[in-house]
Amino acid sequence: MLKNIRRETISGYLFSLPWILYFLIFLLYPIFLSFKMSFLDINIVNPEKARFVGIGNWIKGIQDSLFWKSIFNIIYNQAIFIALTFIIGLGLALLLKEITKGGSIFRTIYFLPVVTSVAAAMIIFEFLANPNGPIQLFLLSIGFLDQPIYWTFSEWLPMPMLAVFNSWKWFAVQMIIFLGGLYNIDPSLYEAARVDGARWWTQFTKITLPLLKPQIVFVLTMNLINGMQMFTEVFMVFDLEGGPYNAGLTPVLYLYKKGFDDMSMGYASAIGLLLAIVILIMTTIQWKILHRKEN
Amino acid sequence: MNLQPKHKSTSQTIINKSRKPFRLPSAAKLLIYLILILGSLVVLYPFVIMILNSFKPGNEIMHQPLSLPEDWTLSGYIKVFTSLNIGTLFKNTIIISTSVTVLNVILNAMVAYALSKLRFPGREIIFKVVIGSMMIPAILLLIPTYVMMFNFGWVNTYRVMILPVALSAYNIFLIRQFLIGIPDAYIEAARMDGANEFQVFFKVIMPMSKPVLATVAILAFMTSWNDLFMALLYLRDESMFTLQLGLYTFKTTIPGQFLEQLWAATTLVTLPVVVVFFFMQKYFIEAFSSAGLK
Prior knowledge:
The complex is a heterodimer.
Chain A: H1 2-38, E1 40-41, E2 51-52, H2 56-63, H3 65-98, H4 103-115, H5 118-129, H6 134-141, H7 158-183, H8 187-195, H9 200-211, H10 213-227, H11 232-237, H12 251-261, H13 265-292
Antiparallel strand pairs in A: 1-2
Helix pairs in contact in A: 1-13, 2-13, 3-7, 4-7, 7-10, 10-13, 12-13
Chain B: H1 8-18, H2 27-54, H3 58-63, H4 75-82, H5 86-117, H6 123-133, H7 139-152, H8 159-162, H9 169-180, H10 184-192, H11 197-208, H12 210-226, H13 229-234, H14 243-252, H15 259-279, H16 281-289
Helix pairs in contact in B: 2-15, 4-15, 5-9, 5-12, 10-11, 12-16, 14-15
């Protein structure tokens, strides 16, 4: 018996070893290094010249208007993206739940953008949306537009355009999560509500939405954590400044520019940490709002 | 997750309806299908454009974006292989994605096995660390990991594209949830027969958890195949480039110069994942839907 317990303990650690090593090398140490570097003025090409600058990088980051511009841009983008994807995802999930035939065909089609790479999808999107592309030509020909829109050079359009692109790319994930949640709701609840004379909207707000809450919380949290770190979408279309008005500048693009173009790794580390703090604050606020209603 | 209706009353209504085969669908049903089809068209349109463009000569892509190809041509496809060497990019991407996939399946399953079926002191702490690490924004690790890889001398190697993504907390979590459902009796029986833990793992656990391992394999493969960021940071020589980095290079070196190649390459890069998806879509959809069940 004792021998068995010992055997299980040893194999327990042995089987966990990959994760323990992975955690130490690729997660814990980098986080430690990130803090350490944020206090240094360091260039990777000659690290021996690293200089301790205290909280200098942090102060510089907090005062850096371009960094805050990038934070503003990504929040602007996420506000549109999250609302749009939520409506499309939930709407299509509600429709798919109603039909009995062909549901799997629609699910398959809707998932195609999810499996496509951001780089490939962005090449297609840029072609479709550019001023000489099919969509604008069509809108011009029916008179919906007066003149072509150079959206990548505009001050306010890049973020909404990218939000539309990302909704197209990711709505299916949310749809499938919501659909799973919808199937788990006991139909007798709806039957009871119908007997009581509740209309569709009342059923939706009083039964569907409250019972979908776990899925909604999950989707919104994951969206925010991932969405705040947008990079490839803007990198494929904009220069490292994010276009003439910095309207396409996201925090990660800015961090990439600082770290790998300007080669100031210490400052880039500080920006990374500041961004992580912003994400933490925003997810906490979101969490508080989503859990408030219960009280 | 079971995406089929669970409750008997729903399936009962389906059966009742199917007894009246000539009943016309109600207006509401028709409207629902109409919206779903419209949605499908919006989703499919960009892919249709991609495929059409890949068969157009360069000047047609530029100047006739709305029409079908006038001269269907394979020149884009031929040029990506002859002048742009996309074969090498495929080779690199396949080596990297396959390694990432195999490592993710085996290593994550090992950890998940320890965390669900083996009892040892500290197990709960390790599990909490796994869960907690899912909340770490990846961006925090970017600069320090790069510095670390640079110091290791790993820049421009395959391993830098593989090892930092060889495990994933989310995948461990997925497999663990599945393993909890396997009765301990199977493991006990194998141990009784004199199997050691590795034999139990490879001969009992791995075969029994095929569905969840397929899900993990697909997630790992797709993420690795579609990655541009890591390739951009770590790969220097063109002989090491991956497909996504190749796409980016075709697009940006001289804008418009490689137009034919760009669209042929975009189609070729997208196709393998789409094919894998068609054959294994059940596991694909599972990979994403399991997420909502926490």
